[in-house]
Each structure stands twice: as C-alpha cells, then as structure tokens.
Amino acid sequence: MALSCSRLSNNLSLMRLLWLRSHRIANGLYTPCVCQQSRYYSSSQVRRGIGRYVTSSLRWVNSKYEGFLKRRFPRFYLLYHTFVEGFKLLFRDAKDVSRIKTKMASGGIAYQDLSYREMEKLRQFRRDMLKGVPLVLLSIPPFANYLVFFLMYFFPRQVLIPHFWTPRQQVEFRQLYHSLRARHHLPVLRELRQASGSIPDTHLRTCLDNLCTQVQKGTNPKVSQILAVRSLFSGVPLGIGKLSVQQMRNLSPLLFLTPRLPGFLIGRRLTNHALELLQMDRALSKLGPQQLSDSELRQACYMRGVNSDRLAVNQCREWLDQWLRVSCTLKDSDVSLLLHCLVFLSADSPNNTSPP
Questions:
Q1: What is the CA radius of gyration of the chain?
Q2: What is the DSSP letter of 234?
Q3: pLDDT tens digit string along 6-65?
Q4: What would the pLDDT profile of 229-279 be if each residue is shown by its tens digit?
Q5: What does the alpha-carbon distance between residue 239 and residue 274 come to, in Å, rounded to a whole number?
C-alpha cells in the first residue's frame, strides 16, 4: 500500500512538472532563450564569422609583410606595391570596359555615340592590352611573379604598361616617348614641301609653303592659316588615300604606331586611328574641355602631340581649345589634315621639336 502511494505521488509530481514547463513555454518564457541560441549558432553567422576572421588575418599578415619589405628592402617594396596597385587598376579598367561593351551591345549604341571618357577608356584599354596581355599570362604560373619583378626592374618601359609604372617613371617615359615622336616633325614638313611642288594652284601652294616655314621656325600657325589649306588634304596630293608611303611612315610614330609595316597596312591603320581621334574630338567638344580634370586634360593634350608635362594647366586648356577649333570643322574626308595638325599645332610647345 505504501509503495502504491509513493508511486502515485511521484507520478503527480512528474505531471505537475510537465504542466509547468508547457505553461512557461506557451507563455513565451523560454522563447527568447531558444531564439537567442538559434541566432548565435546559425550556420550562416558562423560562416560569416569565419570569413571575417580569415580576411582580417590575411590583412594582418599582408600588412606585416609589406612593413618588412618597406623596412628591409625599400626598392623591392616599391616594385611590389606598384605591381599590386597596377593589377587593381587593370582589373578596374577591365570592369569599366566590360560595362561599356555591354551598354553598346544591349542598347545598340555605336562607338561615335559614346561619351568622351568612354571612348578614351576603350582606346587606352585596347592599347594597353596589346602590350599587357603577355605580362599577365607570364605572371600566372607559380613563382613566375619573380620573373615579372625582374622585368619590371630592368625593362619597365619595354614590357610594362603605364599601370605598372611608378609616378616618376610615368613622367620620364612620357618625355622619352615624346622626344622620339618629335624627331618625325621635320621629315613630315620636308615631305609636305616636296608635295607642294605638284600643287597647280599657286595661292594654295604659297599658303602651304608659308605654313611649313612658320612651323619649322617654331611658331604655331593660326587656325585660319591651317583651314586655308584644308582642300589640299581632302584630295590630291595630300588626302589620306593619296599620301606617299614615306609620308605615312613619318606620320605613324606621331600616333605611336609602328612604321615597319607594308604600305597598305600603314595607310589602313592611320585612317582608322585618325577617324577615331576625330570622333573623340567631337565627343570632347560636346562635353567641353573645361569639364576635364587636370590629369585628363594633360592626357588629352599629350595624345594630340604636345608634351603636356612641360605646360601649365591653363596652357594645356588654351592649346586644346585651339586644337578643337580646327578639328571640329573637319569632315571624315579631311582626316589627313588632322594628322598633320599633330605637327602644325605643336611647334612652339616646349621640347616638341628636334633640331634639323
């Protein structure tokens, strides 16, 4: 009998305990604790926490490594930092170009309808890729980046694109490239003088001779003087399809194109690049040169034949205004004159002419 009462008492106690637990859970007394536990131990939170920990650890290790290089090997650190930042800029440009290409494909937008900055981005990225793809492919295999560092150190101008140049190298190499470009100014003028002998119109022949003399003396002609001989550059003898092979070889380095190609290929490349430059000038005229930043302004002038590192910002802006006054009056058939303006309008700029 006693055993039955004890068992009954235990059962009642167990039932009471179960009732109290269910009552407290139903009234939300345990709910915050359960939710809090599920929040603290959810798999997504754990993964994010691990990801943040790994990322912060890698950043810490990288900062320590860079600090070690900066203290012990400062010259190698400069190369390393330039290499890393160069790849960041390169990938950012690739992303911008992909966006522009997608915009053109999805919206049916032609190249000439793009903005000036978009045109410039496509042009520069295309030129960089022709030179930079071998470097990118070379750095893919394990430990190949040490070979890239070797090339960066000993042959930076020949094998690297501007993304991987230090600020000092960018200025130094631009001046060197421009000095090489300026060597072809006088050969261009000599070919013009020879071609002027076949011009039947005496007035036009005299205007062209005076123009060449003025440029050779180091003075930029006026816009009206250049436009006065415009008709000579749209047909015989100085149109883009009528130029001599030698003159095309003289003009190619002005756009940083190789002259060591067959004549018909040089003529095709010159025409394509001249038309591209004309379209960019039209887009720039719509944007307005005053909208360009100082670096964009210098790059625009340098691309058009001027050593802009030797000019003040206001001088660059005045020169670009003069260039656009000529360029924006030209038609597609006048691109030969646009090419020769790379010489006509850069005569009095510092370090822009070479001695005879």
A1: 34
A2: S
A3: 443 444 444 444 444 444 444 444 444 444 444 444 566 656 667 676 677 666 766 666
A4: 999 999 888 999 999 999 999 999 999 999 999 999 999 999 999 999 999
A5: 12
Three-class SS state of 236: coil
Token pair in block for residue 199: 């011009």
Which residues lie closer than 8 Å to 225 by C-beta, 6 or more apart?
207, 210, 211, 214
Q: What is the pTM of this model?
A: 0.77
Distance CA 345, CA 219 (A): 9
Contacts of 96 (CB under 8 A, 6+ apart): 121, 125
| Residues 270, 339 contacting (CB under 8 angstroms) | yes
Find all residues with CB under 8 Å of 218, minimum gap 6, and list them.
347, 348, 353
Please state, for a pLDDT cut of 90, what percent of the chain lies above it: 56
Distance separating alpha carbons of residues 277 and 120, to the nearest angstrom: 10
Concatenated DSSP letters for 146-164? HHHHHHHHH-HHHH--GGG
What SS3 state is found at 119? helix
Rounded to an integer, what distance in angstroms lies between the CA atom of residue 70 and that of residue 78? 8
224: left (phi over 0), alpha (psi -120 to 50) or beta: alpha
**How far, in Å, CA of 23 to CA of 127, rounded?**
75
Q: How many whole angstroms separate alpha carbon 210 and alpha carbon 205?
A: 9
- Which two structure tokens, joined as six digits, stand for 185? 């100014």
The residue assigned the tokens 């000579």 is 232
| C-alpha closest to that of 84 among 53, 63, 108 | 63
28: left (phi over 0), alpha (psi -120 to 50) or beta: left
Q: Do residues 246 and 280 lie in contact, with contact meaning Cβ atoms separated by under 8 Å? A: no
- The residues, any chain, with a CB within 8 Å of residue 121's CB and separated by 6 or more, are 93, 96, 97, 100
- Extract the tokens encoding 21: 């637990």
